[in-house]
Amino acid sequence: AISVMNQWPGVKLRVTEGWDEDGHHSEESLHYEGRAVDITTSDRDRSKYGMLARLAVEAGFDWVYYESKAHIHCSVKAENSVAAKSGGCFPGSAWVNLEGGGTKLVKDLRPGDRVLAADVHGQLFYSKFLAFLDREDPPVHKLFYVIETQTPQTRLLLTAAHLLFVAPPHNHSHSQPQPIFASHVQPGQHIYVLAQGGQTLLQAAVHSVSLKEESSGAYAPLTAQGTILINRVLA
Fold first, then answer.
1. 87-113 pLDDT, tens per residue?
2. Where is the Hint domain (predicted)?
3. What is the CATH number of the domain that holds 137?
């Protein structure tokens, strides 16, 4: 809380949920053990959430990630949790688009690098890379979900607990990208990928979802915006 006030004078830390007494989370949720909190800033300014996540990491939380665009989830790991088992990461072979052109492997990112991201409306812009929320260098083995599209052709590997943005159903009034866990993505759903020319995002149908084990490391990059395009896919 002090770090938040020091970072943004006049702004306070806001805890939206701690202990869950109503059964709103999955059976393995750490909210039932008093090990997790969901936080925002008091002004609910989402542009601050990237830095808020970094402050949470520096405060000593084992696991910090964007559980939804509305808040940051912070927890102390328990060995039986999904996050502890898989994390929310990409393999060392994943790459990003850099400002000024070119690409870079996620594992080689350095604080201050500006990478392609998108806001809640799907508008592209470059956001500053802040830190790795989690980093495990090779030869660590991880099980990744492989999400593939055909038109255009993309292939993204990410762990079960990482969020991926999908398009809402056509009959849904909500038009903004919706974050869901990679483990919940199904063929036929539409994800957001970078169009040819790199100027806009377009919706691409998921063709297949499979599992693959890799030993190229696991990396969870954090940007100031909170989103990032990995292998041309919005995550």
1. 568 999 999 999 999 999 999 999 999
2. 87-195
3. 2.170.16.10
